[in-house]
Amino acid sequence: MTTILIPDVKPNPGKTYVFIIAIGYYPHLIDPSPKLQSKLSEFDLTTLEGYLSCPPISAIQFAEWMESKYQNLKAPLASIDMFISSGEQKGTTISPKTENYISLKTGNSHPVDRATWSNISQAFDQWLNQLKMDDVAIVYFCGHGLGRLGRTREQTLPLENFGKKPNMLFTDDAIDIENTFIGMTTACKAKTQCYLIDSCRQETEGLSKISGNLGLPLARGGRITSSVGNQWIFRASPTGATAYGKPGEASYFTQALIQSLDIFASQLSSDSNEKWLVELSEINRALKKTVKRLSHGKQKRTDYQDISETYIFHELREPPLLPINVSIHPSSVTEQAQIKLNNSHQNYYLPPWNFNVQASRQYYKININSPSDYVIDSPQDHNLDASDPMKAPITCQLTVKRR
């Protein structure tokens, strides 16, 4: 069991506990036995790949973000449990093995356990039993995802040992994620629960031949009575859709998640404290927009479901940096011009004008400096609104004229 304990956690009403599962290596799918191949054909699963380079990278980046940036004053980070299956694909260097995790907090190296049912199920029970009402429980998964036609809530997450027993597929080699959610409403004491499911939701007609559950739930209801105030479930893809990522990089969903937490889902507090806060309710809107942008429209939607109350999930340590794109019309002026923003530490920006500015309640005023003596045509074009990170990247076109 791989547990990264965070040192010097101050006494608080609650703590945050993270459970990470990522599978980029399915050894039985690489060169399936004749018996397994027959089962895969029967269930329309022959396209499942044995190697995925994105999940191990995505899991590590999410864990590092939690260690380095996550700030919840009511429930600071206490620990991260991690299970990652990875393997080196012959003829490529984009899927290296993840055998150790180096904690950013302590610098210690932790051996990472494989993402098999036997490893995960026992560790999850121990992880679950430590949770209390004021705690925050975060479960992150990245890997293959499956479902049956017509079952919109169903999602099954195969583990590393998927296919080891061809005649017993979906017994102890996959997680029944929907029944895990249901079980956690009563089995988990933590009032706030966040699930991040970074996988496809591939539906096949062949899987409809199976009448029972696909996989086992990590938690079953009835063990502990609890009232969940926030159970947020963020999925990389809606029913029947595919989740994407570039080989050798974190998935689009995980990149979008981190960018949303760093920038796009943050809002300025309504009081005078000038704090930038991320509410759980804002993460989904930011995810949808950011996933679509990062994937260049290939991954158009994400999905979520919730049992929710308002909850401040994360507090930024400083104002977010918003990407800004400024252009000039007519474009012939661009090469001669420089622009300046008030409240900016830089005197003048040279073209091309793609830069970051701190989010602010105040407008930035744009001034132009041009050898050809051009001025901004419309007074309202002088103002750049950087108060809402959800609107970023912010595009601004200036129309100029001679004095």
Output the number of helix runs.
7
- Strands ordered across the widest β-sheet: 1-3-2-6-10-12-15
Shape: globular
Low-pLDDT sequence parts: none
Mean pLDDT: 87
Structural class: alpha/beta
Fold-level CATH name of the largest domain: Rossmann fold
Distance between the termini: 70 Å
Total domain units: 2
What is the CATH architecture annotation of the largest domain? 3-Layer(aba) Sandwich
The SSE string, one letter per element, is EEHHHEEEHEEEEHEEEHEEHEEEEEEEEE
CATH class call of the largest domain: Alpha Beta
Radius of gyration computed on alpha carbons = 24 Å
Q: How many DSSP E strands?
A: 23
Beta-strand share of residues: 25-35%
User: How is the biggest beta sheet arranged?
Assistant: 7 strands, mixed
Residues in helix, %: 10-25%
Element layout with pairings:
Blueprint: E1 2-5, E2 16-23, H1 27-30, H2 34-42, H3 54-68, E3 77-85, E4 100-102, E5 109-111, H4 117-129, E6 136-143, E7 146-148, E8 156-158, E9 174-176, H5 177-187, E10 192-199, E11 202-204, E12 230-235, H6 252-264, E13 266-268, E14 276-279, H7 280-294, E15 303-307, E16 312-315, E17 321-329, E18 338-341, E19 353-358, E20 364-369, E21 374-376, E22 383-384, E23 394-402
Parallel strand pairs: 2-3, 2-6, 6-10, 7-11, 10-12, 17-23
Antiparallel strand pairs: 1-3, 4-5, 8-9, 12-15, 13-14, 14-16, 17-19, 18-20, 20-22, 21-23
Structure description:
With 403 residues, the chain is an alpha/beta fold. It has two domains: 314 residues, Rossmann fold; 82 residues, Immunoglobulin-like (Sandwich). Helices cover 20% and strands 29% of the residues. It is built from seven helices and 23 strands. The strands form seven sheets. The protein has a seven-stranded mixed beta sheet with strand order 1-3-2-6-10-12-15, with helices on both faces. Strands 19-17-23-21 form a four-stranded mixed beta sheet, with no helix packed on it. Helix 6 crosses helix 7. The longest helix has 15 residues. It is globular and about 80 Å long. The protein starts with a strand and ends with a strand.
